[in-house]
Request: fold
Amino acid sequence: MRKGGQECATKRLKTPQPATTPCPTAATLDQRLPLSKPLRPSFSQRTHKLHQYLAQWVYEACIPFHAIDNNSFKRFVEVVDQFGSDYRPPSQYQLREPLLKEKEDSEEAHTRSYIFEYIYKCIEEIGPQNVVQVVTNNASNNMEAANMLKRRRRGQTSIGNLPRFKRVIEKAKSFTIFIYAHHNTLALMRKYTKRRDIVRQGVIRFATSFLTLQILTEKNNELRSMVASDAWDQCKHCKTTERKAIYSTILSIAFWNWVSLCLRVFDPLVKVIHLVDRDKSPSMSFLYGELLQEKEEIKEAFKNHEANYHLILQIVDAKAHA
Reply:
């Protein structure tokens, strides 16, 4: 009986229990519910967003509003749409150099002005001293451009316009203009130079530059003392940015070295100018001999380095045979 009772108890224990349904959670509900697809913005929404980006670029780049009506801009938009999403805009260099040049070459008429500007720019880029000859046909626009080029080069073929001398002359000119522009600075300068002016007018502009540099050299120590004085610092006109540049110029050893070189080159030429400007002009043979001697002095100023004086002598010869 005990054994049978144990078997019945075991059977009762092994009777399967009814399954209990777990309480649904938020995670299980999310897994059961189908995910809804994100809605694509409408055409008007996408257009408005695109207009916002375009407007932001127009504002930041300071582009005139009427540029939006330009036909070339409309063509650009059409081509970008045809190209697709792989389009990448050009770089600044591409816009500034090759693309702009293609535009000029394709649409700009080959007028005398265009040819003149193009050739002149090329000459300046490679250096006039490296140009042997410019060869064109005898078309009327080319011949007119050649005459324009001759007039421009003739106006610039001056020793004073050479970069090495022009920088020095411009600095000296800035100094004299600043001094004579204000009563206080002019009075201070005359106090240090003992009422000696630092500007003298010559017969020609070249001579004026020479005379001004000559006086500045003579009063070198006085002018350096002036800009380093307390009176210069206390002058209200001497507290500007321009004053700082002038202060650096007058106290610069390099500036005075260049002034000295200018005078060694200009002095022989001014002597010839004075000979020609006399009431009784000397003979041509005498002037020619003087000119040869002045050329030798110019060579000595550059220690006979031909690369330094070659262009100067070319200008002298051109003026002599003009």
